[in-house]
From TrEMBL:
<feature type="transmembrane region" description="Helical">
    <location>
        <begin position="185"/>
        <end position="206"/>
    </location>
</feature>
<keyword id="KW-0997">Cell inner membrane</keyword>
<keyword id="KW-1003">Cell membrane</keyword>
<feature type="transmembrane region" description="Helical">
    <location>
        <begin position="17"/>
        <end position="39"/>
    </location>
</feature>
<feature type="transmembrane region" description="Helical">
    <location>
        <begin position="246"/>
        <end position="269"/>
    </location>
</feature>
<feature type="transmembrane region" description="Helical">
    <location>
        <begin position="141"/>
        <end position="164"/>
    </location>
</feature>
<keyword id="KW-0813">Transport</keyword>
<dbReference type="InterPro" id="IPR000515">
    <property type="entry name" value="MetI-like"/>
</dbReference>
<feature type="transmembrane region" description="Helical">
    <location>
        <begin position="72"/>
        <end position="99"/>
    </location>
</feature>
<protein>
    <submittedName>
        <fullName>Spermidine/putrescine transport system permease protein</fullName>
    </submittedName>
</protein>
<keyword id="KW-1133">Transmembrane helix</keyword>
<keyword id="KW-0472">Membrane</keyword>
<dbReference type="Pfam" id="PF00528">
    <property type="entry name" value="BPD_transp_1"/>
</dbReference>
<dbReference type="InterPro" id="IPR035906">
    <property type="entry name" value="MetI-like_sf"/>
</dbReference>
<feature type="transmembrane region" description="Helical">
    <location>
        <begin position="111"/>
        <end position="135"/>
    </location>
</feature>
<keyword id="KW-0812">Transmembrane</keyword>
<comment type="similarity">
    <text>Belongs to the binding-protein-dependent transport system permease family.</text>
</comment>
Amino acid sequence: MAVSTLERPLAARPSTWFVWAGMAAFAVFLLGILIAVVVDSFGRQWFDTWFPEGLTTDRYTEAWDRFALGEVVGVTVFVAVTVVVVSVLVGVPAAYVLARRDFPGKRAVMLLFLLPVLMPPITYGIPLATVMYSFGLGRTLTAVVLVNLVPSVPFVILTMTPFIEQINPAIESAARMCGARTRQVFTRVLAPLLVPGILAAAILVLVRTVGLFELTFLVSGPGSDTLVVAIYRGMTSAGGGEARQLISAMSVIYTATMLVMLVVALRFVNPTQLVAQVKETRDD
């Protein structure tokens, strides 16, 4: 009896198995850390045993009250939303100019926008914080928003510029021939095409802003700390004498906040829309 061509032994190159083994090991390691932090946040005491001696939710209540996490979460959401909105309002028009106009020094401008994205934040964060304190903005929400805009606006520009370049300029020319002005072309013709790219860039900026520690830490203070900075301050307060379970509870709250914000953001955009929209406009 002939063996069907569909029945083939499962075989793969050693390099493929090595890659899959590495990915599996990373997943197990990451999952183990997450489980350990979550269990520790509910544990009463956990030293040299495989499981805590008892479980309780008191650590969350204590951390919420002791570190004023209600205010901290509110500050985090406010800073993230403000940075996203301002970055989009400034970055999209700037990306349009860079995508549609040629001018002397264009490459230098693109390199200038690239630097805050590639450079470690601490390298320009200290001089930036010095400027903020010189103008009396240190430890304020204004300073936190401004320093987060420094990498976020260039990030939106670099993300949106190639996206806009893929849109056929003939669409704009046709709109102008029909009597549309520049503002109308941008708001009524380009804006609907740019919505997937804008939403994708906004989600990336949201994640970067919520997780950005260095710049925020240098200029924030009581009443302006974001959640990631509050975790660090809680961990180092009293010479590191805070209960480990309190820090674990704060970390779980931070992770849950990130997940909620991402779920809400992804509710309005499908990441595949960006690729599909670019392909569709390019084919047109």
